[in-house]
From TrEMBL:
<feature type="domain" description="HTH cro/C1-type">
    <location>
        <begin position="12"/>
        <end position="67"/>
    </location>
</feature>
<dbReference type="InterPro" id="IPR010982">
    <property type="entry name" value="Lambda_DNA-bd_dom_sf"/>
</dbReference>
<dbReference type="InterPro" id="IPR011990">
    <property type="entry name" value="TPR-like_helical_dom_sf"/>
</dbReference>
<protein>
    <submittedName>
        <fullName>Regulator</fullName>
    </submittedName>
</protein>
<dbReference type="GO" id="GO:0003677">
    <property type="term" value="F:DNA binding"/>
</dbReference>
<dbReference type="Pfam" id="PF13560">
    <property type="entry name" value="HTH_31"/>
</dbReference>
<dbReference type="InterPro" id="IPR001387">
    <property type="entry name" value="Cro/C1-type_HTH"/>
</dbReference>
Length: 401
């Protein structure tokens, strides 16, 4: 039987099983009883309120349309362009260069590769994902070719960064399985260099969480954070602090997905202590860590733990701060998407729409190309008549209004 033909309760049961969740686990994360979940799955209780369907879908990490049995809307032109870019990146990841070819093209000089990697990071920070997807296949091939020829720490570092950027953008675009592969390649390349390996754990954890494997993400980040505390040269420099802080933040997100409120608080308190010692202008590992990062993580994990009202109250203070404006537009827009989802959870559709438009003005690709953003827009579209700007955004991404 096709998924769209199943009763909604059966769809909930099937998706819960895929997430390796028991009925009790689902009930705990929804704030319901196990009996409530059992009755829903057996069809005794009907899921007829869209706000509840959205809440269940959020816990199961799926688009609400999957629970409703509706087909996915057709891709827009931008979506088709992104799909082609992802296919090109997938093909680049499928190629291996284990031995330099003496008759092949010359290697790209490391200094030129360093410039291109830096430009790729800037492109990611500005959320220009189509441009990044166009650049990544050649960047992956050239960095891999050069590292195969040189086999030194500098070219290994460049290749690890190329894989990290690839993994990060793939998570954004809903390709978590492929992102896991890219992050794993980064870790394999960095073997023997603990700090370099630790940088690759950040996108690895993000990919694992996107796949619903939060316990694995926690198991990856905590040891990596611990390894950055060594006092043996040359890994005892202040440059290691932002990396350890970023790993603790990722661990906190994973702990929130595991419904471990005490763990979240402890990890973010440690990260805050590190952030107080970090110079905001110093980011040698390009992990984007600082006081604002910790402040935003406290808010998003609060929402993930089920307290959307508290998250909403806190976010206005952060957005008004000077530190907020120093964050990359990618980070700001992604955070605003999380807040829009929080507004949806409390039933404030008007505020969710305003926040979504704010995110779109901050970084359009973050809203128009990410699957999670499409889910938010779809939720708003089903909630009633849309304001003109939200309706225009829904039309732009190919959703009916």
């Amino acid at each position: 039987m096709a998924n769209r033909d199943l009763p909604i309760g059966r769809r909930v049961a099937r998706l819960r099983t895929r997430r390796q969740m028991t009925q009790q686990m689902l009930a705990d994360r929804l704030g319901k009883s196990k009996s409530w979940v059992d009755k829903v799955e057996r069809g005794v209780r009907t899921l007829d309120r869209y706000s509840v369907i959205t809440e269940v879908a959020t816990v199961l990490r799926v688009d609400p349309t999957l629970l409703l049995g509706r087909t996915t809307p057709p891709r827009t032109t931008s979506g088709a362009t992104v799909a082609a870019g992802i296919d090109a990146v997938r093909a680049a990841l499928a190629r291996y260069d284990s031995h330099p070819d003496p008759y092949g093209p010359p290697t790209t000089p490391p200094n030129e590769l360093s410039r291109r990697v830096g430009h790729a990071w800037l492109t990611y920070d500005h959320a220009d994902y189509p441009a990044l997807l166009r650049a990544l296949p050649d960047l992956l091939g050239d960095t891999r070719h050069t590292h195969t020829a040189y086999r030194d720490d500098d070219t290994a570092g460049l290749l690890v960064q190329a894989y990290r950027i690839t993994a990060s953008v793939l998570v954004k675009l809903g390709e978590a399985d492929l992102a896991w592969l890219a992050a794993d390649r980064a870790i394999a390349t960095a073997t023997g260099n603990p700090p370099l390996s630790a940088t690759a754990v950040v996108p690895l954890a993000q990919a694992l969480r996107a796949l619903g494997r939060a316990p694995l993400a926690l198991a990856a980040t905590l040891p990596a954070a611990h390894h950055t505390t060594t006092h043996r040269p040359p890994h005892d420099s202040p440059d290691m602090l932002p990396l350890r802080g970023a790993l603790l933040v990722e661990a906190a997100h994973a702990a929130a997905a595991c419904a471990d409120a005490d763990g979240v608080r402890e990890l973010l308190d440690q990260a805050a202590d590190i952030a107080a010692q970090v110079d905001d202008d110093t980011d040698p590992h390009h992990v984007g860590f600082g006081p604002a990062t910790v402040a935003l993580a406290r808010i998003t994990t609060t929402a993930d733990l089920g307290n959307a009202h508290q998250a909403i109250t806190r976010h206005t203070q952060v957005v008004a701060s000077g530190q907020w404006r120093r964050l990359p537009v990618e980070h700001r827009a992604a955070f605003l998407l999380d807040i829009a989802r929080a507004y949806l959870l409390v039933g404030d559709l008007l505020a969710a729409g305003r926040t979504l438009i704010h995110a779109d003005r901050t970084a359009p690709a973050e809203v128009r190309l990410r699957p999670v953003a499409r889910t938010v827009i779809a939720d708003l579209a089903r909630g009633g008549p849309l304001p003109a700007d939200v309706a225009a955004l829904a039309t732009a991404v190919g959703l009916p209004v």
